[in-house]
Amino acid sequence: MTIAHLTDLHLDDFLARQCEVDTPANLKRLMGEIGKHDIDLLVVTGDLGEERLFGELKNLLAAAGVPWHIIPGNHDRLKDLARGGLIDPDCIKGGEYYYSEEIRGLPFYFMDSRSEILGTAQLQWLRGKMASADEREILLFIHHPVLDCGTAMDQRMALKGREELSALLRESGRNVHLFCGHYHFNDIKEKGKIRQYVTPSNIMQIRGDEGNISIDTFDFGFRLIHIGENVQTEVIMLTPESGQNSP
Ligand SMILES: [Fe+2]
Fold first, then answer.
1. What distance in angstroms lies between residue 160's CA and the mean position of ligand 1's atoms?
2. How far is the CA of 66 from the centre of ligand 1 (A)?
3. Per residue in 182-195, pLDDT tens?
4. Which of 10, 60, 70, 102 has the fewest CB atoms within 10 Å of its CB?
5. pTM score above 0.90
6. Domain count, the chain
7. Residue 247 domain-assigned?
């Protein structure tokens, strides 16, 4: 199966205005690119943008003709997402949105790091799922990275308590393929049996070396995840039509 992973859409929100990026136009171009691939599923891991564009977002996702899943990012509000029909209100528990689903025989976990820290109930749920199921591989989608990428974002924008989540996943003994965004760059990290993929954003990419956070390029992209004997991914980047690619 092939999954298209999109993240950090920032549709016409404060960041898009600040960076002067036409993020709805970027998303249309990404969806056009995704349309060239034979995908089975779409997953969007949060920071969607302005609620008034949720209808348009829903139409774009529906036009891909495959099932889609959305989880929230730190700039999203669950009630807006629910009102826009982007998430299933039945999966909101104690103010957090998380669930698991078997898709084509594979266990998918969708988690909520919106408040930048995972609630006790959500961690308990994950612990319980890990204790009761016996799958070898899991696919986990969450807005925030869990493993350290060694950047300024890890110092200033990291998920609080990520060590606890990382330990829980490692102790599960499973191969965890963890897909996230939030940091606005392309990165793959591995620790034990956790392989973490940070997917680039729909707005611009960030560099966070030498303790500074700054715009790297105005490229935007998504990740294709191919699942067969093993999991392989590729990132596809597009450049802005204006041709201006660095700040
Ligand atoms: Fe974020």
1. 13
2. 25
3. 999 999 999 999 99
4. 102
5. yes
6. 1
7. no
